[in-house]
Amino acid sequence: MKEKLIQKSLFLIATSAISILVLITFFIFKEGSPLFLKKGFFSVVFGSDWSPIEGHFGVWPFIVGSIWVTVGALVLGVPLALACSIFLVEFAPKKLRLWVKPAIELLAGIPSVVYGFIGVVILVPLIRVYFGGTGFSVLASSVVLAIMILPTIIGISMDSLSAVPPSYREGSLALGATPWQTVYRVVLPAARSGVLASVILGMGRAIGETMAVIMVAGNAVRIPGALTDSVRTLTSNIALEMGYAIGDHRMALFATGIILFGFIMVLNISANLLTRKK
Amino acid sequence: MSKLEVKNLNMHYGDFHVLQSVNMPIAQHEITAMIGPSGCGKSTLLRCFNRMNDLIESAKIQGEILLDEKNILVKETNLIKLRKKVGMVFQRPNPFPLSIYENVSYGPKIHGEGKKRVLLEIVQKALEDVLLWDELKDRLKDSALSLSLEQQQRLTIARLLAVQPEVLLMDEPCSALDPISTQRVEELMFQLKEKYTIVIVTHNMQQAARVSDRTGYMLLGRLVEFDETQKIFTNPKHKETEDYVTGRFG
């Protein structure tokens, strides 16, 4: 009797947690999708004029903005993160690894507003002095995001490198390969799916990040033409305008959310597929 | 002349004395078998011959191992050249998760061979030597992990032959294989010994009796007895050896 009660209530709690998520998704689509019907899907997604007061809701500049800062973050962050995880797993003494890995995971716990703040105080002035412009730019956002995705990529790729059987390394070394040849030609290919998944999850984190990007991106509504140009991302657009959006404008912000949702879904599904394909 | 000569070899893992004053010669173009109960140090000894024990931080080695009369335990030894000369086959087949072709061409590639035509020749030769060429010549692009265990073990031997070693170290190469595959790998070893010097560690006394020319019996880190295989199995000098080979112990 008591057992049944516990089971039932656990079931209830589990389903309510899931249904909340389902409802939120449903709500976003319900609020946002009418805009696509009203204005036409293509004119929203590929329209580059965003002037809510005149009723123009083209989100293309934000899509491009999100892609720019994300690609920038990956270009800067991925080599660093991979080099770091390869070093820690394959070459560093065990003691160092035991200290550094938790420290890196701790980095993931720092609130994003702190990263943004450091960006505003240090990075933005540096870019202003050395590269010109206001400093609030694609470059600043990419650098901040690159640092923020390090823990994600390092953590997961370290796990997948460590999961490569030692017998592969032994086999390679026993053939007279150097440690680096072993890593490059055997260990990395063996860990490829996990490493790729880590990069994709990092990409998801970069696209979804809002606060830190708002603080250093400048947020101008236009397609950036240079790394030092101001940029607004999909997430920033929602956060910046939600306070005063009503009617179609509000609908357009939810539509922005749907597009973002699509991006993240695609990334997470591909990460899942990659890790499962072992 | 011996291909390898172990002289007064001592080894410690931390405080544990794993190899105690081991002395033995290993003759060229012969199969030398090491037998003994688990934990007796026979695999450890084998891994001294290509310095794989270097990977273990707490390992300390004293003594000499002469390969062609040169001590390989000195610091200046070029490990890459040593391991190219002294190759190893492991207990569990460990093909890389790459294609069959990439597995066999791996060694020559890392040692600087870049020409596709030469690589293909080497791959064919090595696979022929382990009698896999006819079975696999049409599926060189397939993953090596799709092969049967026996084929995988043959493949790892082919991968080794492709770097043209002089000594083959085999660490229980048949323990993951069924009896028929074991027999076929043993036949392969007979063929290989004409060109190579082979040292095999085995749990399986019948295997040692069948394939080897000389056998060493190890117990608790000591080399109790080393002699021609026939003598070890029919007329051992030491009581301990006799107990082991007759199955009273171990």
Structural overview:
The complex is a heterodimer of chains A (278) and B (250). Chain A has 278 residues and is mainly alpha-helical. Chain A folds into two domains: 2-45; 61-276, Orthogonal Bundle (MetI-like fold). Chain A is built from eleven helices and two strands; from the N terminus they run H-H-E-E-H-H-H-H-H-H-H-H-H. Chain A has a two-stranded antiparallel sheet with strand order 1-2. In chain A, strand 1 and strand 2 (56-57) form a beta hairpin. The longest helix of chain A has 38 residues, at 2-39. The model of chain A has no long low-confidence stretch (mean pLDDT 92). Chain B is of the alpha/beta class. Chain B has one domain (2-95, 164-245): P-loop containing nucleotide triphosphate hydrolases (Rossmann fold). In chain B, 36% of the residues lie in helices and 27% in strands. Chain B has helices spanning 42-48, 79-85, 100-110, 116-129, 133-136, 149-161, 179-192, 205-211, 229-234, 239-245, and strands at residues 2-13, 16-27, 31-35, 59-67, 70-71, 86-89, 167-171, 197-201, 214-219, 222-228. In chain B, the strands form two sheets. Chain B has a six-stranded mixed sheet with strand order 6-7-8-3-9-10, sandwiched between helices. In chain B, strands 2-1-4-5 form a four-stranded antiparallel sheet, with helices on one face. The mean pLDDT of chain B is 89. The A-B interface holds A 165, 167-168, 170-178, 181, 185-186, 189-190 and B 50, 52, 55, 79-84, 87-88, 90, 92, 94-98, 106-107, 109-111, 156, 159-160, 163.
